[in-house]
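Technical appendix A lists one of the benchmark inputs used to test multi-chain prediction within the project. The record comprises three sequence entries:
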Amino acid sequence: MVDVDSNEMHSEENKASLDNNKKRVLKTPAQLMALEKFYNEHKYPTEEMKTQLAEDLGLSEKQISGWFCHRRLKDKRLSRDETCANGRQDRSSGVIQDRASGLGQDSCGSTKDYRYVDPREVESRRLSGHDFPAADITREHRVRYTERVVGRDNNTSSESSSSLQDRFSTQHDDPYDMETSRYVTDNGVFSPLNSKGTENMGYKPSGYLKVKGEIENAAITAVKRQLGRHYREDGPPLGVEFDPLPPGAFESPMDPVHEPSIGGDAAVLHSPDTSGVKRQSSPSSRYEAYNSKLSSQYMQQEKPVRSPKIGQRSKASKSVAKYSETHDTERGLVMMSAREEKVDGEFKAMKDYQNPLGVMMTDEKAVAKQGRVKFPQREYATNLSFSQIPERKNQIKGTAMEMPSSFSEDETAETNSSVVRILQLKDDKLGRGSQITSL
DNA sequence: TTGTGTTTTATTGCCTCC
DNA sequence: GGAGGCAATAAAACACAA
């Protein structure tokens, strides 16, 4: 742990070092966290924002500007790599991809190549919550970063997935607030998460799950567990017949622009009741989106492409695998950030889905230039307790580690109930009531 | 322990917009 | 012309494998 004083001193050193020598000084975890959070909402901060941020973080405006600049470049670079990798993967593998992950699908393919998309458009989409490879990348980065932040002292648990058990269980506006409230005790010490969810299951993948990696299918496994005795590997019970799907049931618009790509049910999304569903923060919908996305990510890792960046990713996945074996109690904290970010984006996507793109997309760059973006509350920096953020070391990188491999009982219950709610909504819309029980 | 690769930070130059 | 952003580059910090 790093106490406040040392961080503040560090911040002072940042300024001083800039003046005195050119030796670069790493941002403190708290600074990075604040910056990341701010960046997550404002890719192009106004001068006022920068000033405020610089003041709050103890950095110079130049540093702030430079950081945002590099951060955008990083996003863009990663976006290129990611979309290109996805495109290659799609061509080389015969694995069916979820439609929700189709954004990567067409990245280097025929529909649209995001490498040639105006980055501001990318950003606008991200801001508006539309799913996008870059959004994943941001999430990946954030996970990587926060892992570094919290993953330093990972000796509290050897369970492989306790951190993930909370992925879908909670929704909070501010992941950082949530982190501190949920994981930090009154003394500011990280309290271990409940890890029993991993132990009590003893579930072994079977059938299709054997083929795919356990990591990828952990979410599927979780759903299986939730379904319990209702789950049948060989399909529905004999004698149970499903109603034929209505025409166009699987024909959700694949407009790469409007497609929210959250992997949720199209009927739900297009339903007038969508608002109710999204506010409900259905873990199942999130789960679906997550699972579909993870599939594409997993495939990338499985067949690394010979490019420097992909090589990094492959290496990262190894680290992740190793990391996931031993670091999970506090990793949950990392997951919370990534998850909340994604979830937030998903709900934005759902909320924004009904609006035309032209209306929804805001050119933040232009807006920032005009200084019309309201500076948010100074929560980015001030809400961060430096004492709660470990010193940064042990850079653990990865993407697929976000995969939930187990759920706590509470989470299972909640997820299960949410799944049922979604199914009920679907059935209500389709005017049938048999599928839930058929499951 | 060391070499190598990756990431992050800082600098600089060019470009675009007002 | 100034401001801001992007891209290229260098260098330091860091992680990891041998």
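The two ends of chain A are 48 Å apart (CA to CA). Residues 18, 22-27, 62-63, 66-67, 70, 74, 144, 308, 311-312, 315-316, 369, 395, 397 of chain A lie near DNA strand B (CB under 10 Å from a C1'). Comparable benchmark entries are summarised in Table A2.
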